[in-house]
Amino acid sequence: MTVILTNDDGIDAPGIQALLKAVNDKNVIIAAPKDHQSGCGHQVTTTRPIKLQRRSDIEYAIAGTPADCVRIAITQICPNVKFVLSGINAGGNLGVDAYISGTVAAVREAAMRGIPGIAISQYRKGKLNFDWDVAAEFTSAVIADLLKLPLEPGSFWNVNLPHLQPGEAKPEVVFCQPCTKPLPANYRLEGDDFYYVGEYGKRDRTPGSDVDVCFSGNIAITQLRV
C-alpha cells in the first residue's frame, strides 16, 4: 500500500528521516512542509498559492502546513493513498497538545477523509539530545503492531516515545487515555512583551494518562477521533 509521510518540523528535519528509516519496506511518498510549522495546529491555507517543489520521484516539499500537505498529497499527488504517518516530531504531543500540534493535525486531516494514520512524537527531557536511531527502532515496532489493529473510521493513533537515557529499561507499550490537564501558561514580562516560559516537563499529569505513561519512561498510545 502507498503511505504518505509528513511532519510539522519541516521536510529537512531529522525526525522525518528517522520515520522513513522505520518504514523502509513500505511504498512511501514524502509530502512535508518546506519550512518549520511546529505548533500550527490544524491551520490550512486558502488565501494564497501553495508552492510545491518536487525533489525526487517520492519527495515533495510543500510551502504550507501539515494539513495542507496531506490535502494536496491525497487529492493531487496520490489519490490511492491508504495510510498517513506523521513525525517523528522533535518533542512530545501528549494530551491537549493534540489541539496545538501540526503533527497530529496531519493525521486528523487524513482521518476526516476516511484514511487512517499514526502521529509519532519523541518526548524530550529538557535540552538533552535525541537518539533518532533508537526512535526509528521503537517507531518501526509500534507501526507494525498498530497496522494489525482495527481502527474505526474517523479515528487515528497518537504515539509518544519516551526520552530514555543509556542504561534505562526498555519501554513498555501502553494504550491509554489522553491527559486533559492544561499546559503551563507562564510568561516573563519585559515592557509590553510577553515571553512564554512554561516548562513542558512540569505540566500536570493525570495518573495513567498518556502524559504520565510517557514521562514514566514508556511508549504512550492513544486513539483519537475526529
Keywords:
226 residues, alpha/beta, Stationary-phase Survival Protein Sure Homolog, Chain: A, two-stranded antiparallel sheet, 11 strands, 23% helix
Question: Could you characterize the architecture of this molecule?
Answer:
It is globular and about 40 Å long. The two termini are 23 Å apart. It has one domain: Survival protein SurE-like phosphatase/nucleotidase (Stationary-phase Survival Protein Sure Homolog, Chain: A, 3-Layer(aba) Sandwich), CATH 3.40.1210. Strands 3-4-2-1-5-6-7-11-8 form a 9-stranded mixed β-sheet, with helices on both faces. Helices cover 23% and strands 26% of the residues. It is of the alpha/beta class and 226 residues long.
Question: Gist?
Answer:
By secondary structure, the chain is an alpha/beta fold. The chain has helices at 14-22, 66-77, 102-112, 132-146, 210-215, and strands at 2-6, 27-33, 52-54, 59-62, 83-90, 117-122, 155-161, 173-175, 187-190, 193-196, 219-225.
Provide the structure class.
alpha/beta
Hey, roughly how much beta strand do the residues contain? 25-35%
Strand order of the largest sheet: 3-4-2-1-5-6-7-11-8
What is the H/E order?
EHEEEHEHEHEEEEHE
CATH superfamily: Survival protein SurE-like phosphatase/nucleotidase
Report mean pLDDT, rounded to a whole number.
95
Write down the overall geometry: globular
- The gyration radius over C-alpha positions equals 17 Å
Helix proportion of residues, in percent?
A: 10-25%
CATH architect. name: 3-Layer(aba) Sandwich
Question: CATH class, anyone?
Answer: Alpha Beta
Low-confidence stretches: none
CATH topology: Stationary-phase Survival Protein Sure Homolog, Chain: A
